[in-house]
Amino acid sequence: MAERHTKQSTGISLGKLAAAGIGTVLGLRALLRQRISFRDKTVLITGGSRGLGLILARQFLEEGARVAICGREEETLARAREELEKLGGEVLAVPCDVTDPVQVEALVAQVHETFGAVDVLVNNAGVIQTGPLEAMTLEDFEEAVDTHLWGPLYTTLSVLPEMKQRGEGRIVNISSIGGRVSVPHMVPYSASKFALVGLSDGLRAELAQDGILVTTVCPSLMRTGSPPNATFKGDHEKEYAWFFLSDSLPGFSMNAERAARRILEGCRRGDAEVLVGLPAKLGAVARTLAPNLTAALMARINRWLPQDSTQDRYTGSQSETPLTRSWLTELSRKAASRNNENEVPIH
User: Fold this and answer.
1) Where are the chain's structural domains?
2) How far apart are CA 99 and CA 96, in angstroms?
């Protein structure tokens, strides 16, 4: 009897293992089926005229996609279009402020008329404001929320009907590690990026049933060359110095082209979240597992930062010092030249 019972138990165990193995294989096959080719797909990238958006546009073109970009500065947008057209492929550049729903509707309509329905939407447009909380106004918060929450919502709602009709689509929302860990002296930015993470996660849950996969991207600092076009308050020269140096030095920031490739691969697979760079991964884990320690560390960092509460607003290019012009920022300056971040009009 004992021998028979052992054989029966072994048979049941083997059956469970076989079933688990089959389930795993089927699950892996389902995941693999989610991978898509971007060839002949229509990709719309907001904020695609410079920085990370322009890098992503280059990479999508290399994949054989039709690429539409938008941006607020027409001169910057025209330079980006000329560069992308030289790479070959089909390119459309449309002036658009994504905080205006009327302009967004017109943008999507023009993309549809030129290339057809949008297959991949990348919500990348962004603004950066740096300075102590006391230097920030309600207008700073409104600008950040309009750009990082309402802008992605407007574009998403504009492309959703046709994605749902086709039963497929990809939406990529570029948030930030600042959307997982609130960074001192960047409260409007972090608050609005946290909001984008919440929107993106909710969209993922509700749209999966329609075949639409939403990916939330939280990168560390990337050397895109954007600091000269960010805005700074308080002791703006010191604020710009710490931000620009952090954005330039390896270890604190990462190569933007490598970051863009990881974002593109996350979109291809339909990942729920892409944490780009070791600081982003460590920050997300620390915030989850040790929230009190993380909060204490952020408070300590805040004490080291300038505490001037002046509300005057300057761009990075208006805040240069010998330190920010030194070899320490060379990598970021080279990135600015590559990624159309020079000669951007001041808003």
Assistant:
1) 37-338
2) 9
List the one residue out of 203, 116, 92, 115 whose CA is nearest residue 166. 116
Burial 117-155 (b: 16+ CB within 10 A, else e): ebbbbbbbbbbbbbbbeebbeeebbebbbbbbbbbbbbb
Task: Output the CATH code of domain 37-338.
Answer: 3.40.50.720
pLDDT at 210 over 60: yes
pLDDT category at 340 given cuts 50, 70, 90 is confident
C-alpha distances out from residue 248 to 113, 263, 278, 333, 335, Å: 40, 20, 16, 8, 9
- Three-state SS annotation for 81-127: HHHHHHCCCCEEEEECCCCCHHHHHHHHHHHHHHHCCCCEEEECCCC
**Whether residue 189 lies in the annotated active site:** yes
Distance (Å, whole) CA 314 – CA 308: 14
- The model's pTM is 0.89
Distance of alpha carbon 103 from alpha carbon 93, whole angstroms: 14
- Tell me which residue of 202, 52, 50, 61 sits closest to 120, measured CA to CA: 61
Query: What is the longest distance spanned by two Cα atoms in the chain?
Result: 88
212-219 and 169-174 beta bridge pairing: parallel
98, 71 contact by CB (below 8 A): no
pLDDT digits 0-9 by tens, 109-160: 999 999 999 999 999 999 999 999 999 999 999 999 999 999 999 999 999 9
Digit-coded pLDDT (tens) for 14-73: 455 545 555 554 444 444 447 899 999 999 999 999 999 999 999 999 999 999 999 999
- Catalytic position from the list 154, 189, 240, 314: 189
What is the number of alpha carbons within 13 Å of residue 311 lying toward its C-beta?
8
Residue 197 has pLDDT above 80, yes or no: yes
- CA dist 222 and 197 (Å) reads 19
